[in-house]
Specification:
The chain has 337 residues and is of the alpha+beta class. The chain has 17 helices and 11 strands. The strands form 4 sheets. A 3-stranded antiparallel beta sheet has the order 3-11-4, with helices on both faces. The radius of gyration is 25 Å and the shape is globular.
Amino acid sequence: MKFLIGYINKIFLATILMVATFSVLPASAACGKIVIADMNWASATFMAHMDKMILESGLGCEVELVPGDTMPTGTSMAEKGEPDVAPELWVNALKEALDKSVSEGRLEYAGRSLLEGGEEGFWVPRYMVDKNPELATISGIKRNAKLFPNPEDKSQGLLMGCPAGWNCQITTGNLYNAFDLEEAGFVLGDPGSSAGLDGSLAKAYERGEPWFGYYWAPTAFLGKFDMVKVDFEVSHDKEEWDKCTTILDCPAPKPNAWSLSEVFTVTTTELKGKSPEAYAYLANRGFKNDFMNKFLKWMDDNQATGEEAAEHFLKNNEDIWSKWVSAKVATNIKAAL
């Protein structure tokens, strides 16, 4: 009997030790490594760094950030399943490829990172429209190319285009052709980068000078600067959009209008399988445009990096982010902060 009791005690002790061992294993043993695309605009880099902090401190994941951009990241995820997460992907121009990958079980639309969608278009400063109301329409813009002189050749008007690598570079080029803006006297400018586009708009606005170009919302600049979205005077044609407006070098684009852009957090299906709790967080996480406009203005005013913005957000907006995670994960995050 003593032998039997001793044997049972040994089994019980071994069981306790095994449970204790598993209880102190790092969460990353279950979560694994997650690669997140760090896109090169303010809201996206903020989300990437915020996701990194929450997944690392809250769930114990091992997170790597890699440089990203709309077209190359979306294409890489659709074709190669890399990276694991695109926190803020404007999917309109990639919808067909992404939908195919989702239907084939390779990618997931985890959730809407911008709950109300994004808004793209061509914009002009309100002070120009106040002086000349017809500048609120594309036909009025075409009649007044001389009001938007190209600094390199003032005999031409300038439409400031979209940075290279963004899906809007294709749509902007096709719409430039569709509305015959070259014939109207405009050249399509290349800002070179997101910073170049921002600098062009800020410089013109602060000096009260003319500006006509591509931009999107929510952004700090459209919260800071009073801009008017140009009415294209046509409705959105989805068939034309899918077959031509979003297709590189479409030979005969027709006038079209941007629809409200769908902005998703896109992940690989593999991530959903290997770390369901991480996926659940990404599916729950999303921002309203009004909050994002104000937060991006704070980032701009403080010249905050994505990492600084993420830390500021987590320290000051627990009422928002705590709803995206479990109470235990929230406790871990607060302890890390």
